[in-house]
Amino acid sequence: MEFNRQQQRQRVVELPVWRRRALLVAVLFGFMLLVVQSVSLQSTNKAFLQKKGGDRYIRTLELQADRGKIKDRNGEILAGSSPVASIWVNPSVVKMSEKQKLILAKLLEMKVAALDQKVSNKQKQFIYIKRRIAPDLAEKVKALNIAGIHLEREYKRFYPAGDVTSHVVGFTDVDGNGQEGLELVLNDVLAGKAGQRRVIKDRAGQIVEELEVVREPSDGDELTLSIDRRIQYLVYRELSKAIEFYEAKAGSAVVLDAKTGEVLAMANFPTYNPNNPTNINGKTRNRALTDVFEPGSTMKPVTAAAALEFGGYLTTTKIDTAPGYMKIGPATIHDTHSYAELTVAEVVKMSSNVGSAKIALSLDKQKLWNVFNQLGFGEKTNIGFPGEVRGKVRDYKTWRPIEQATMSYGHGISVTLLQLARAYTVFANNGALMPVSLVKLDKAPAGHPVFSASVANSVKDMLELVVQEGGTGTKAQVAGYRIAGKTGTAHKLGPNGYERDKYVGSFVGLAPASNPRLIMAVMIDEPTSGKYYGGTIAAPVFSSVISEVLRLLAVPQDAPNANLVKPAIDDAEIQEMI
Amino acid sequence: MQMNLTLFTVLIVVALGVVTAQHEARKMYSEHERLLVLAAQYKTEYEQLQIEQSTWAMHSRVEEMATKQLQMRVPNPQDVQVIVLDGVRK
Lengths: 578, 90
Prior knowledge:
The complex is a heterodimer of chains A (578) and B (90). Chain A is 35% helix and 22% strand. Chain A is of the alpha+beta class and 578 residues long. Chain B has two helices and no strands. Chain B is mainly α and 90 residues long. The interface between A and B is medium-sized, with 35 and 24 residues.
């Protein structure tokens, strides 16, 4: 011990001076390196390094924006978003036992092979296993605690009214983008914009400080439609009954508020479930807007109004319709009976083609075309719906006499059901045509005057005759209210002209006739049960819907409850020539 | 010397105060965050319930239950008289 210490002391003493200096230089050099490096880091690489440092604790968070709800005019939800979970896997890190795999596959109702296939792609960092599962199921998956399997919160759109409103509302795809209907047109309004904020998180993942809000999230706007879910349901129910009963291929119905032009209901068949839009080919069309048809006799009131407005006719002007048919060029048009002399009102009531044709041929082409045009035929309604079509009204310069004649009773002119319903607003508003809207309005918009008030009201009176004894629309009667309306039946247009045994039956009506609040148009396409007159197949739909809706809305009655005349029993009595 | 010592003590106290305040602020902030998350949860739950209610209240379902289970029926239109009281309607 003593010896050692002595030796050490001896050695220290014996150290040469250069070693001390060398050491000093080395240490100073080391310090210098540190200084140089720190200066260079501070000055040249500062931004980069700060960012890298920040990446360790600063996190950018997505702030989700909610997609706006779609509501009906009374605030009932027609479309809303609800959170669901999607399960994704990072195949490059996933680790699970065979047992876990089995349980997972069972929970997700997947085949193990399918699961294996998704997990086995080691190149990928992100693969969805299953999207949009219920939150409680997601909790069970989470409880399995498998490394590499993650949950992501997503929103799924729900449509509580299901197939009742599907054509109007539409639906979104799996990523939440609108695919059909209003969800598609108003996607930008409904969607909203996601926001972002930067925060500092501690080791446990808790947010300890907010640095900045990069972008405020803005939720999508809520949309209030003009649709009334109750009326929509009644229309849906009655229309589906009629289509089933008459074995029809398709059908549509529209209910308008006669004063404001708001669409209270719009239903079509076939329909589909927007909550699970599979196998929907051909079912998604909102036929009331996207499909045209030749309206048939529902066009006659328009002809009559034109005749009163500028043709010098009075309601009581007599027209000779004998002998029940009429030759125009090579073609012949027919009535069901030979009525001999009919007044203009009776032409509408009996739905006489010959009478209507004679009136039309006496009118000025351009003025008649102008009426069609002003009523919106051949033009889109601008209701703001995807796939709306304009229909077809030929230019008056190309009209031949036969065309002018047939157009007066709705052949050789094609319209959408919405156009037809809208045209009838003139008879409810003293001659003014109302714009239509699918969005709830605060006040009635200004109408566009087409006919004078006296002409419009005279034609409305004629339409009341149609549903009374001897008219073609008796089945449209409603207990306690006066109804005005017109039936229509037409052959369908095929590739080789009119199809012999394919028909479209329709009815358009106003209620109550004394002061119309509602307009309803019904169209039934290709009934195959043997009955096809509009007065037989479409008028009852009108009656059953409108009788409930008028009472639902507590519209004051304008007739006693015992106002029904015995409705026609069979087709023969409500036959109209087509 | 006396002065310096006093200031040093004050400095230490203040420094500790800053640390404590910072800690408190972060605690409160994370509590705030937690409550925001909770609020968002309640909001989505509320919306979920609204949708659920709306789905249960589907007209076709109510109608079926009323007619089949409760043997109810809609009165005939002829049996319903709409009465309008003056002054009640706009």
